[in-house]
Amino acid sequence: AAMAGDPPAEQVRWLVEAQKLSEQGRAAEAIVQLESRVAEESVHPAVSLELARLLHEGRRPIEALDRLEKALLKHPGERRLRRFAGSLCYELQRYADAATHWALGLDPDMPARDDYRALGSALILAGRPLAALQAYRQGLLYFSADLELHRGVIQCLAELELPAEARAACREALRLHPGQKDLLRLLAGVHLTLGEVPRAIEVLEMFLLLNPGEREVRLQTKLEELEAEVLEAREAQQPIVVEDDIRDVISQWTGVPLSRIAAEESQRLLEMESFLHDRVVGQEDAVAAVSRAV
């Protein structure tokens, strides 16, 4: 694609010479030649772009980015310079700068899905999930069925702690891409966040149904864990009151430790036969029988 019109014939010759030197393994010479020429006021942005490309291929991304940013001072509206600068900032983990370049490089007249994907990704890594959400949704206006853009929307909603909206986004993405594995996993996770454990189990079971050859131990284990949670929740809704529970409540009411009283009473019963023998004379068998019965 042309940039600010085609370069003048002389500058086209510079580019051809630089490309030939690069193909011959003499990229360093090509860089030196182009470096001496980009300082000229009238240099075409294509020359700066080629210089940055050669520097990047030579594993000199910081210098490549520097040349691009200098060229952008002269040609701030050149989208190819912006996109390449955004890619280099992303590579250098300068995510906020990458997002700025990509945002300025968007072309509403010729939208490209990769631009919106890259912009959203950079904004997320820059800690700006709300702006990333807006970028992904803007991309979906042009590419409504793009799976990567839908994934980005769901990820942003999850980071913004909007699980209900994330659930709706998952369902919309699954409508366009039914049976998509990672979308099913995302939807299951959203259901869990909302406390909808049975729904999460249904989604995971659907995953297994749609992927009969899948043998993910982790997934099966998760399913079993969820089923156990459901069972535990059901049991929690029907509490069982036992004798010890009653004793504890009475103890709290009265302040009397009933567990100690119960222990003392048991000791008395064990000693009852000896006590009766001291009181009743000549009735050994009867005393023994009564004590056993009690």
Number of strands: 0
Mean pLDDT: 82
Number of helices: 17
Strand residues, percent = under 5%
- Which bin fits the share of residues in helices? over 70%
The profile of the biggest β sheet is: none
- Element order, helices and strands? HHHHHHHHHHHHHHHHH
In angstroms, what separates the terminal alpha carbons?
A: 102 Å
Low-confidence stretches: none
Computed CA radius of gyration, to the nearest angstrom:
38 Å
Shape label: elongated
Structural overview:
It is a single chain. With 294 residues, the chain is mainly α. Helices cover 76% and strands 0% of the residues. The protein is built from 17 helices and no strands. The longest helix is centred in the last third of the chain and has 21 residues, at 217-237. It is elongated, with a radius of gyration of 38 Å. The model has no long low-confidence stretch (mean pLDDT 82).
Topology, please?
Layout: H1 9-23, H2 27-38, H3 45-57, H4 61-74, H5 79-91, H6 95-104, H7 113-125, H8 129-142, H9 147-159, H10 163-176, H11 181-193, H12 197-210, H13 217-237, H14 243-254, H15 258-270, H16 272-279, H17 284-293
Task: Kindly summarize this structure in a few lines.
Helix content is 76%, strand content 0%. By secondary structure, the protein is mainly alpha-helical.
Descriptors:
mainly alpha
